[in-house]
Write a structure and sequence with these properties.
The chain is mainly alpha-helical. It contains 13 helices and 6 strands. It has 3 domains: 88 residues, Endolytic murein transglycosylase (Dna Ligase, domain 1); 84 residues, Dna Ligase, domain 1, CATH 3.30.1490; 103 residues, no CATH class. It catalyses: a peptidoglycan chain = a peptidoglycan chain with N-acetyl-1,6-anhydromuramyl-[peptide] at the reducing end + a peptidoglycan chain with N-acetylglucosamine at the non-reducing end.
Protein backbone atom coordinates (compact mmCIF):
# COMPACT_ATOMS: atom_id res chain seq x y z
CA UNK A 1 0.00 0.00 0.00
CA UNK A 2 2.86 2.35 0.91
CA UNK A 3 4.52 1.59 -2.42
CA UNK A 4 1.33 2.43 -4.30
CA UNK A 5 1.04 5.76 -2.48
CA UNK A 6 4.73 6.52 -3.08
CA UNK A 7 4.66 5.77 -6.81
CA UNK A 8 1.32 7.57 -7.21
CA UNK A 9 2.76 10.65 -5.54
CA UNK A 10 5.92 10.36 -7.65
CA UNK A 11 3.83 10.03 -10.81
CA UNK A 12 1.80 13.13 -9.92
CA UNK A 13 4.99 15.12 -9.21
CA UNK A 14 6.56 14.06 -12.53
CA UNK A 15 3.31 14.76 -14.37
CA UNK A 16 3.07 18.23 -12.85
CA UNK A 17 6.72 18.92 -13.61
CA UNK A 18 6.56 17.78 -17.24
CA UNK A 19 3.09 19.32 -17.71
CA UNK A 20 2.08 17.50 -20.94
CA UNK A 21 -1.26 19.29 -21.19
CA UNK A 22 -1.82 22.26 -23.46
CA UNK A 23 -2.95 25.16 -21.29
CA UNK A 24 -2.33 27.72 -24.01
CA UNK A 25 0.48 30.15 -24.71
CA UNK A 26 1.36 33.71 -23.81
CA UNK A 27 3.67 36.25 -25.36
CA UNK A 28 6.14 37.47 -22.75
CA UNK A 29 8.36 40.51 -23.18
CA UNK A 30 11.79 40.40 -21.56
CA UNK A 31 13.29 43.93 -21.55
CA UNK A 32 16.99 44.47 -22.12
CA UNK A 33 19.30 44.28 -19.10
CA UNK A 34 16.70 42.36 -17.05
CA UNK A 35 18.22 40.31 -14.18
CA UNK A 36 17.52 36.60 -13.75
CA UNK A 37 15.42 37.30 -10.66
CA UNK A 38 13.38 39.90 -12.55
CA UNK A 39 12.84 37.39 -15.37
CA UNK A 40 11.63 34.83 -12.82
CA UNK A 41 9.20 37.38 -11.37
CA UNK A 42 7.84 38.18 -14.85
CA UNK A 43 7.35 34.49 -15.66
CA UNK A 44 5.60 33.84 -12.34
CA UNK A 45 3.29 36.81 -12.75
CA UNK A 46 2.35 35.65 -16.27
CA UNK A 47 1.76 32.04 -15.06
CA UNK A 48 4.52 30.57 -17.20
CA UNK A 49 6.16 29.02 -14.14
CA UNK A 50 4.82 28.14 -10.67
CA UNK A 51 7.92 28.53 -8.55
CA UNK A 52 10.45 31.32 -9.35
CA UNK A 53 13.11 29.73 -7.09
CA UNK A 54 12.87 26.43 -8.97
CA UNK A 55 13.37 28.36 -12.23
CA UNK A 56 16.41 30.17 -10.81
CA UNK A 57 17.80 26.86 -9.51
CA UNK A 58 17.66 25.20 -12.93
CA UNK A 59 18.95 28.35 -14.61
CA UNK A 60 22.07 28.12 -12.39
CA UNK A 61 22.45 24.33 -12.70
CA UNK A 62 22.31 24.58 -16.51
CA UNK A 63 24.78 27.49 -16.52
CA UNK A 64 22.43 29.74 -18.50
CA UNK A 65 22.14 32.67 -16.08
CA UNK A 66 23.71 35.15 -18.52
CA UNK A 67 22.24 33.72 -21.72
CA UNK A 68 18.59 34.82 -21.53
CA UNK A 69 17.72 36.82 -24.63
CA UNK A 70 15.63 39.97 -24.44
CA UNK A 71 12.62 40.46 -26.66
CA UNK A 72 9.19 38.89 -27.06
CA UNK A 73 8.91 35.14 -26.40
CA UNK A 74 5.96 32.85 -27.10
CA UNK A 75 5.82 30.48 -24.11
CA UNK A 76 3.46 27.70 -23.01
CA UNK A 77 1.68 28.20 -19.68
CA UNK A 78 2.95 26.24 -16.64
CA UNK A 79 5.68 24.27 -18.39
CA UNK A 80 8.65 22.85 -16.50
CA UNK A 81 11.50 25.30 -15.84
CA UNK A 82 14.02 23.50 -18.06
CA UNK A 83 11.70 23.97 -21.05
CA UNK A 84 11.33 27.67 -20.19
CA UNK A 85 15.09 28.19 -19.80
CA UNK A 86 15.87 26.74 -23.22
CA UNK A 87 13.07 28.72 -24.87
CA UNK A 88 14.42 31.95 -23.38
CA UNK A 89 18.01 31.42 -24.48
CA UNK A 90 16.96 30.80 -28.10
CA UNK A 91 16.02 34.44 -28.43
CA UNK A 92 12.76 36.25 -28.87
CA UNK A 93 11.41 38.86 -31.20
CA UNK A 94 13.16 42.12 -30.38
CA UNK A 95 11.02 44.83 -31.92
CA UNK A 96 12.30 48.34 -32.50
CA UNK A 97 10.00 51.33 -32.15
CA UNK A 98 10.76 53.85 -34.87
CA UNK A 99 9.11 57.10 -35.92
CA UNK A 100 8.94 58.16 -39.57
CA UNK A 101 8.32 61.94 -39.70
CA UNK A 102 6.02 63.65 -42.17
CA UNK A 103 7.44 65.07 -45.37
CA UNK A 104 10.14 62.53 -46.24
CA UNK A 105 10.89 61.04 -49.63
CA UNK A 106 11.38 57.29 -50.16
CA UNK A 107 15.18 57.50 -49.95
CA UNK A 108 15.01 59.39 -46.64
CA UNK A 109 12.65 56.82 -45.15
CA UNK A 110 15.00 54.05 -46.28
CA UNK A 111 17.96 55.81 -44.65
CA UNK A 112 16.18 56.07 -41.28
CA UNK A 113 15.21 52.39 -41.35
CA UNK A 114 18.71 51.39 -42.40
CA UNK A 115 20.39 53.36 -39.60
CA UNK A 116 18.15 51.68 -37.02
CA UNK A 117 18.95 48.20 -38.44
CA UNK A 118 15.31 47.32 -39.04
CA UNK A 119 16.01 46.04 -42.53
CA UNK A 120 18.85 44.27 -44.29
CA UNK A 121 19.00 46.04 -47.66
CA UNK A 122 18.29 49.75 -48.14
CA UNK A 123 18.63 49.56 -51.92
CA UNK A 124 16.12 46.70 -52.08
CA UNK A 125 13.65 48.80 -50.07
CA UNK A 126 14.01 51.72 -52.52
CA UNK A 127 13.79 49.39 -55.52
CA UNK A 128 10.59 47.74 -54.26
CA UNK A 129 9.02 51.17 -53.73
CA UNK A 130 9.46 51.76 -57.46
CA UNK A 131 8.62 48.26 -58.70
CA UNK A 132 5.26 48.36 -60.50
CA UNK A 133 4.59 44.64 -60.06
CA UNK A 134 5.24 44.80 -56.33
CA UNK A 135 3.14 47.96 -56.02
CA UNK A 136 0.27 46.22 -57.84
CA UNK A 137 0.48 43.38 -55.31
CA UNK A 138 -0.35 46.02 -52.68
CA UNK A 139 -3.51 46.97 -54.57
CA UNK A 140 -2.17 50.21 -56.07
CA UNK A 141 -1.64 51.05 -59.73
CA UNK A 142 1.23 53.52 -59.42
CA UNK A 143 4.75 53.95 -60.79
CA UNK A 144 6.09 54.68 -57.31
CA UNK A 145 5.07 54.58 -53.65
CA UNK A 146 6.25 58.15 -53.13
CA UNK A 147 3.62 59.70 -50.89
CA UNK A 148 2.15 56.38 -49.73
CA UNK A 149 4.61 55.38 -46.99
CA UNK A 150 2.50 56.77 -44.18
CA UNK A 151 4.49 58.74 -41.59
CA UNK A 152 3.86 57.25 -38.15
CA UNK A 153 5.46 55.39 -35.24
CA UNK A 154 6.00 51.72 -36.06
CA UNK A 155 7.06 48.66 -34.10
CA UNK A 156 9.37 46.70 -36.40
CA UNK A 157 11.49 43.60 -35.97
CA UNK A 158 15.25 43.96 -36.25
CA UNK A 159 16.45 42.99 -39.75
CA UNK A 160 12.85 42.71 -40.95
CA UNK A 161 11.84 41.89 -44.51
CA UNK A 162 11.83 45.00 -46.73
CA UNK A 163 8.61 44.02 -48.48
CA UNK A 164 6.90 43.47 -45.12
CA UNK A 165 7.89 46.91 -43.86
CA UNK A 166 6.61 48.60 -47.01
CA UNK A 167 3.34 46.65 -46.86
CA UNK A 168 2.85 47.70 -43.23
CA UNK A 169 3.34 51.38 -44.09
CA UNK A 170 1.06 51.26 -47.14
CA UNK A 171 -1.68 49.41 -45.24
CA UNK A 172 -1.44 52.08 -42.56
CA UNK A 173 -1.86 54.73 -45.27
CA UNK A 174 -4.97 52.99 -46.62
CA UNK A 175 -6.50 52.67 -43.16
CA UNK A 176 -5.89 56.32 -42.29
CA UNK A 177 -7.34 57.54 -45.59
CA UNK A 178 -10.45 55.34 -45.24
CA UNK A 179 -11.05 56.95 -41.86
CA UNK A 180 -11.29 60.45 -43.37
CA UNK A 181 -12.93 59.91 -46.77
CA UNK A 182 -15.21 57.54 -48.65
CA UNK A 183 -13.32 58.08 -51.90
CA UNK A 184 -11.98 54.86 -53.42
CA UNK A 185 -8.23 54.36 -53.19
CA UNK A 186 -7.74 54.48 -56.96
CA UNK A 187 -9.17 58.03 -57.17
CA UNK A 188 -7.16 59.89 -54.54
CA UNK A 189 -3.77 60.14 -56.27
CA UNK A 190 -4.18 63.83 -57.12
CA UNK A 191 -5.27 64.47 -53.53
CA UNK A 192 -2.07 62.82 -52.29
CA UNK A 193 -0.02 65.02 -54.65
CA UNK A 194 -1.65 68.19 -53.31
CA UNK A 195 -1.26 66.94 -49.73
CA UNK A 196 2.46 66.38 -50.34
CA UNK A 197 2.83 69.99 -51.55
CA UNK A 198 0.95 71.22 -48.48
CA UNK A 199 3.17 69.10 -46.23
CA UNK A 200 6.32 70.73 -47.56
CA UNK A 201 4.95 74.29 -47.64
CA UNK A 202 3.08 74.47 -44.32
CA UNK A 203 4.44 74.36 -40.79
CA UNK A 204 1.23 75.00 -38.84
CA UNK A 205 -1.97 72.96 -39.15
CA UNK A 206 -4.30 75.96 -39.34
CA UNK A 207 -2.64 77.05 -42.59
CA UNK A 208 -2.74 73.69 -44.35
CA UNK A 209 -6.35 73.96 -45.68
CA UNK A 210 -5.64 77.52 -46.90
CA UNK A 211 -2.49 76.49 -48.78
CA UNK A 212 -4.36 73.54 -50.29
CA UNK A 213 -7.02 75.92 -51.58
CA UNK A 214 -4.40 78.27 -53.05
CA UNK A 215 -3.05 75.41 -55.15
CA UNK A 216 -6.54 74.35 -56.23
CA UNK A 217 -7.48 77.93 -57.14
CA UNK A 218 -4.37 78.26 -59.31
CA UNK A 219 -5.09 74.93 -61.04
CA UNK A 220 -8.65 76.10 -61.76
CA UNK A 221 -7.30 79.26 -63.41
CA UNK A 222 -4.64 77.26 -65.33
CA UNK A 223 -1.81 79.07 -63.55
CA UNK A 224 1.47 77.38 -62.64
CA UNK A 225 1.59 76.33 -59.00
CA UNK A 226 5.06 77.87 -58.57
CA UNK A 227 5.84 75.81 -55.50
CA UNK A 228 9.46 76.00 -54.37
CA UNK A 229 9.04 72.61 -52.72
CA UNK A 230 8.67 70.93 -56.12
CA UNK A 231 11.96 72.41 -57.32
CA UNK A 232 13.74 71.24 -54.17
CA UNK A 233 12.30 67.76 -54.83
CA UNK A 234 13.94 67.75 -58.27
CA UNK A 235 17.33 68.23 -56.65
CA UNK A 236 16.57 65.64 -53.95
CA UNK A 237 15.82 63.09 -56.65
CA UNK A 238 19.37 63.60 -57.91
CA UNK A 239 20.88 63.56 -54.42
CA UNK A 240 18.68 62.73 -51.39
CA UNK A 241 21.26 64.30 -49.07
CA UNK A 242 20.81 67.70 -50.71
CA UNK A 243 19.93 70.44 -48.23
CA UNK A 244 18.50 73.57 -49.85
CA UNK A 245 17.43 76.54 -47.76
CA UNK A 246 17.33 79.12 -50.56
CA UNK A 247 16.50 78.81 -54.26
CA UNK A 248 18.30 80.99 -56.79
CA UNK A 249 16.68 82.27 -59.96
CA UNK A 250 18.59 79.73 -62.06
CA UNK A 251 17.35 76.90 -59.82
CA UNK A 252 13.78 77.74 -60.76
CA UNK A 253 14.64 77.06 -64.41
CA UNK A 254 15.75 73.44 -63.98
CA UNK A 255 13.99 71.33 -66.59
CA UNK A 256 11.83 68.70 -64.91
CA UNK A 257 8.12 67.85 -65.07
CA UNK A 258 8.19 68.31 -61.28
CA UNK A 259 9.22 71.96 -61.67
CA UNK A 260 5.88 73.73 -61.17
CA UNK A 261 7.43 77.06 -62.18
CA UNK A 262 7.92 75.72 -65.72
CA UNK A 263 5.11 73.19 -66.07
CA UNK A 264 1.47 74.03 -65.26
CA UNK A 265 -0.84 71.70 -63.35
CA UNK A 266 0.13 69.14 -60.77
CA UNK A 267 3.55 67.48 -60.80
CA UNK A 268 3.58 63.84 -62.00
CA UNK A 269 3.43 62.48 -58.46
CA UNK A 270 3.72 63.30 -54.76
CA UNK A 271 6.94 64.97 -53.61
CA UNK A 272 6.94 63.40 -50.12
CA UNK A 273 4.82 61.35 -47.74
CA UNK A 274 2.18 63.71 -46.30
CA UNK A 275 0.83 63.36 -42.79
CA UNK A 276 -2.82 63.03 -41.82
CA UNK A 277 -3.39 66.79 -41.39
CA UNK A 278 -2.10 67.55 -44.88
CA UNK A 279 -4.27 64.80 -46.35
CA UNK A 280 -7.28 66.28 -44.57
CA UNK A 281 -6.39 69.73 -45.90
CA UNK A 282 -6.22 68.45 -49.47
CA UNK A 283 -9.56 66.67 -49.07
CA UNK A 284 -11.28 69.54 -47.28
CA UNK A 285 -9.56 72.81 -48.30
CA UNK A 286 -10.56 76.19 -46.88
CA UNK A 287 -13.18 78.32 -48.62
CA UNK A 288 -10.91 81.23 -49.63
CA UNK A 289 -10.01 82.93 -52.91
CA UNK A 290 -6.29 83.50 -52.32
CA UNK A 291 -3.90 82.86 -55.19
CA UNK A 292 -0.54 83.61 -53.57
CA UNK A 293 1.34 83.16 -50.33
CA UNK A 294 4.74 84.21 -49.06
CA UNK A 295 6.65 83.12 -45.96
CA UNK A 296 6.60 85.70 -43.15
CA UNK A 297 9.72 84.36 -41.50
CA UNK A 298 7.99 83.05 -38.37
CA UNK A 299 6.66 79.82 -39.85
CA UNK A 300 3.42 81.43 -40.99
CA UNK A 301 2.48 82.85 -44.40
CA UNK A 302 0.90 86.01 -45.78
CA UNK A 303 -1.86 85.20 -48.27
CA UNK A 304 -2.84 87.46 -51.17
CA UNK A 305 -5.62 87.60 -53.74
CA UNK A 306 -3.81 89.71 -56.36
CA UNK A 307 -0.33 89.67 -57.82
CA UNK A 308 0.18 93.31 -56.86
CA UNK A 309 -0.62 92.58 -53.21
CA UNK A 310 1.66 89.56 -53.37
CA UNK A 311 4.61 91.63 -54.64
CA UNK A 312 4.13 94.14 -51.84
CA UNK A 313 4.03 91.32 -49.28
CA UNK A 314 7.20 89.77 -50.71
CA UNK A 315 9.00 93.09 -50.59
CA UNK A 316 7.90 93.71 -47.00
CA UNK A 317 8.82 90.29 -45.59
CA UNK A 318 12.06 90.01 -47.56
CA UNK A 319 13.13 93.37 -46.12
CA UNK A 320 12.53 92.01 -42.61
CA UNK A 321 14.81 89.00 -43.13
Amino acid sequence: MKKIIFFSALFIIILCWLQPFDLGQREINIPRNTTAKEVADILTKEHIIINPYEFLFWLKILGKENQIRSGRHQLSIYKNPVYVVYKLIKGGRSDITITIPEGLIIEEVAEILNKRNVMQNKEKFISLCKDRNFIKSLGLNLPSLEGYLFPDTYSLEESADEAGIIKKMVENFKTRVKNITDLPMDSIHNTVIIASLVEKEARYNEERPIIARVFLNRIKLHRPLESCATVIYVYKLKNPDTVITYLREKDLKCDSPYNTYLYPGLPPGPICSPGLNSLKAALYPADVDYLYFVARGDGYHHFSKTYKEHLLAKEYYNAKK
